[in-house]
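How a chain folds remains the central question behind the approach discussed here. In the encoding step, the backbone of a single protein was reduced to a row of integers, each denoting a local shape. We regard such an encoding as a compact summary of how the chain folds. The sequence in question and its structure tokens are set out directly beneath this paragraph:

___
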Amino acid sequence: MQYYPQEESFCRSILEDIIQDMNSRQFKKVPLIWTPLEHDGKNVKEFKKIIEQKYGIKLGGYEDLHKWSIENLCEFWTEFWDFLGIISSRRFNQVRL
């Protein structure tokens, strides 16, 4: 493959224009769906407790919850959706990888 320095310069110029344009735009700020109330993992513990009670399982810690979420994708996202209190015109109907 032959090297053309002018192409690199041209591409760099386009990239710089794009960056300048992006930096000059005012992006709409949207509210966060959820943020933790405390730094002690209270919300994760509460969510884990809901999962344990509903599914009759015992999760030792975050790693167990993470493993369960991977092995039970649909159940995890259904419970997380409800836990966050997401409101939408319709509920999701599948989980994609």
Summary: The chain has a mean pLDDT of 81.
